[in-house]
Specification:
Layout (H helix, E strand, L loop, with lengths): L23 H4 L12 E2 L8 E7 L4 H19 L4 E2 L3 E7 L2 H7 L6 E3 L2 H11 L2 E12 L2 E5 L1 E9 L2 E6 L9 E9 L15 E4 L5 H13 L10 E4 L3 H10 L4 E3 L22 E3 L22 E2 L2 E4 L5 H30 L3 H9 L2 H4 L9 H14 L1 E6 L4 H10 L2 E3 L5 E3 L1
Parallel strand pairs: 1-3, 2-4, 2-5, 8-10, 11-12, 11-13
Antiparallel strand pairs: 5-16, 6-7, 6-16, 6-17, 8-9, 8-15, 9-10, 10-14, 10-15, 18-19
Length: about 425
């Protein structure tokens, strides 16, 4: 069946290829998951039929399963699983306490996904190796960002102060930054030194971007994060930390960069006016692509959440997992273009073309292994997981140095290192 030229589909955003006189089969080879090279033979001595991915769930196990099950079970089983003959399978297991579950209880996990501070601790204790670093997909007040860094900030609001740091409820960047927030109208808090004798709230002591990175900044400023504040509270939730500042429950909040800009008013459902906050000792950062990081922050920038593997995991399996996550963004891009095509279609004929044309129609640079089904899977998985796949792993040396300096990683009696 010949297909005609699509006249106006997507014309407002981009021009698609001219298909006049061609059929998809004549112009392209249909996508194949193993088009680039053949399958790998399963090795029953060094490889497993089922691999488990442990996922850090600071916002709860149910939320983590909803956001990442499609990525770490469905997508990896589809892409990596079929690279082996016979196929292998991936399962996800979420936990709120990774150090306890993965180290103390020695739970059976092969790969792990957590914030950068936890990886630094776990990598130190069991020798886990990073495979890739998350690229966050973030929407904030009408703007879309794809970021690979994050930081923390301190926000201040009238009558109270808020500290902002860490991963923003799984909205990931490839770098992370911590933020210290306080009310803009509060003239009593303008520097890190002003945190002395103030009430501070963060998500948890073990959360890197909403606790540890800000505590380190306090230490560098000559403050003891235990003795100098009037009180330190842990809310378990970034939004609660922000709202507590608004309500005057505490003076300062430790939250991830961008958290205040994305917190909703519980009564109106609208975004909180972020102009009522100020970032304490604000910093800027330049991302690897040369763009300016879109949020002010109080801490240095650190790598985003990594995916990492135990050293016992077979090298071929680890390599395939890393490749699949790095290629995730290319598959998701095609899926996004297909959805945009369908949204822009004005006639039933245009809609039918959107539903039938091959991936390369929507993206001339589409990978040969991108099928329509895989593009849809990546699009859905990335949407619910707030990410666009991953990039080659970033270095965590700076993270470990910071944690050692702040006392979060110490030398134990056996001349090794342990996290606290």
């Amino acid at each position: 069946m010949a297909l005609c030229v699509v006249g106006t589909v997507g014309a407002n955003n981009k021009e698609y290829l001219d298909f006049e006189g061609w059929t998809p089969e004549q112009q392209w080879t249909i996508g194949d998951i193993n088009c680039t090279y053949g399958t790998r033979e399963f090795n029953e001595h060094t490889q497993k039929r089922v691999y488990t991915i442990g996922v850090h769930a600071p916002a709860g196990v149910e939320k983590a399963m909803n956001e990442f099950n499609m990525t770490f079970e469905t997508y990896l089983t589809e892409v990596v699983g079929k690279r082996f003959d016979p196929p292998i399978e991936f399962k996800m297991k979420a936990t709120e306490w990774p150090l306890h579950s993965w180290i103390d209880l020695e739970e059976e996990v092969d790969f792990m996904y957590s914030d950068t501070g936890l990886y630094s601790c776990i990598g130190t204790e069991i020798g886990a190796q990073p495979l890739a670093t998350t690229i966050a997909s973030l929407d904030s007040r009408g703007n879309h960002y794809e970021l690979d860094i994050y930081a923390g900030k301190l926000i201040q609001q009238e009558g109270c102060h808020l500290l902002f740091t860490g991963p923003a409820n799984f909205d990931f960047f490839a770098f992370i930054e911590g933020t210290i927030l306080a009310l803009a109208s509060n003239d009593n808090i303008n520097t890190i030194e002003d945190l002395k004798d103030k009430k501070i709230a963060g998500q948890a002591f073990s959360v890197f971007a909403a606790g540890q990175s800000q505590f380190w900044v306090m230490r560098k400023a000559g403050l003891d994060y235990i003795m100098d504040p009037k009180q330190v509270l842990f809310t378990g939730n970034h939004d609660e930390t922000v709202r507590g500042v608004l309500n005057g429950d505490w003076d300062v909040g430790f939250v991830p960069s961008g958290r205040a800009e994305r917190t909703l008013d519980e009564e109106t459902g609208e975004y909180i006016d972020s102009s009522v906050f100020k970032v304490i000792e604000p910093k800027i950062a330049i991302m690897s692509n040369g763009d300016l990081f879109p949020f002010l922050h109080s801490t240095p920038v650190f790598p985003e959440w990594p995916l990492y593997a135990k050293k016992e995991v077979d090298m071929e399996v680890a390599e395939e997992v890393a490749i699949a996550m790095i290629n995730f963004g290319a598959h998701k891009k095609v899926g996004a273009e297909i959805h945009r095509c369908m949204e822009d279609a004005e006639t039933s004929e245009e809609l039918e073309i959107c539903k039938t044309m091959p991936p390369v129609y929507f993206d001339p640079t589409a990978r040969c292994d991108t099928t329509r089904a895989l593009a849809e899977l990546a699009y859905q998985a990335g949407t619910v997981g707030h990410h666009s796949g991953m990039r080659p792993a970033r270095s965590h040396f700076q993270v470990r140095t910071m944690q050692q300096d702040a006392g979060f990683i110490i030398q134990n009696d056996k001349k090794g290192t342990s996290s606290i």
